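quick one, 511 residues, struct below
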Amino acid sequence: MLLRFENVSRDFGPVRALRSVSLSVRAGEIVALLGENGAGKSTLMHIVAGLDTPTAGRILIEDREQTIDSPRRAAALGIGLVSQHFALAPALTAAENYELFLRAAPRLYRKERIEERLSRDADEYGLPISSHRLVRDLAVGDRQRLEILKALGQSSRLLILDEPTAALTPAEFGELARVLRDLRSSGTAIVFISHKLSEVLQLADRIAILRQGELVGERSPADTDASELARLMVGEDLPPPLARDEHEPSSVRLCVRDLRVARERGRELHVPTLDLRGGEILGVAGIDGNGQDELFEALSGERTRTAETLEIEGQDARAWDVNQRARAGVGAIPGDRHRRGLVLGMTAAENLFLRGVPKGLTDLRPRLLRWIPGTLSRRRLIEHARPLLSRFRVRGDAASPVSSLSGGNQQKVVLARELLREPRILLAHSPTRGVDVAGAAFIHEQLARRRREGCAILLVSTDLDEILKLSDRIAVLSEGRWRGIPRGPGERTLLGHALGGAEVPDEGVKS
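---
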């Protein structure tokens, strides 16, 4: 047995994150680890990767008890980790991050050589990346691929992948699955954490399920299905799939003409026409790095004066910044919650009120103030945040730093902050990335409810099922080019071709 946990527990103050978990992983085996956000999956993997220590229990590597008190010790034992939260130096290029991670001692710096090395390895593994670009300028999908390449470059005996496909397309998952199967055949043990049950059923040899810190079962993919796995994760049946009701949208809330935004290497995003109406969801599909970030920034106000026409509720908004657009009723859920959605050092309560007191809760304002004019009472802030966070099913204390929450719960904090403001226009970029199946269903229902109430929603996502399930109209971004895909028979096939850059009839994004 390559890895064995024996009765491992982990406490964070009064919170028990893991409860006497016993689990084994053999060499040449892929074990999938499932559970809701906050179930303890990442905590368990951080313990074996040397990023955390257990409160109780033992870890054995090849039947010998080990104390893994640092990532360096884990690496010496042949353990590699792709963390859910990227560990990259933003001011360095992708190639420099790759070289820095793989090399134990300083080497003569040759820019062309290290870029060539990363490009060669990226091609070999089928995970293309712009090796010369600074990490801070990379899309989330590119950073995800770089993290995976770093781990694969270690030649680890035990490879831990924590949500590695959250920002990958189905085709890229196929390439990664091929690589992982080859590694399994060579004797590498792999722990694969994912909320995408279809991927788990395709890839895993064995599936272990955590719920509220306890191991509640193990299954063989041949003897289970997605419904049973979801039930084991949540403890009950999930609600039936969301039904998209048909109704007529209202007037145009957001009007864009000839939007142009510069991208890397002289390329640009070009959106000739975009009309977004109240009571509809316009889905924008695309592989990460094809202009989605630029589109979001141009519409949210992070970039101004990028279009011939950009009107919000009939007013010229080209020169409006983020705050002006927010005051006009624009809500924004960014694609990268860590860099743009949250202040990680602040509490969950403080992040909830970052944009001020929500529109529908203005009666709270006097109760949040301290006796010093213009200042807020932290105690009252936390007290009033708790029921609001609970309403959005956020697991974690409102008084804790938001960085201590799981990724899915962090996402729900962002969702709660934006929806409590009752936006008339909502820009939602990858709203369920890294969120468990129950959390994703909850977020989908929240978006559908806001649509029914008349909100105009622009949904940007790499998840084709999400786009097809929620959208009234669909557009595709490929290499910065905007094309409309007609809804109806054959839409998934057309969508797949368009995502890959193939020429398909441009139907426009018809109202």
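The mean pLDDT is 87.
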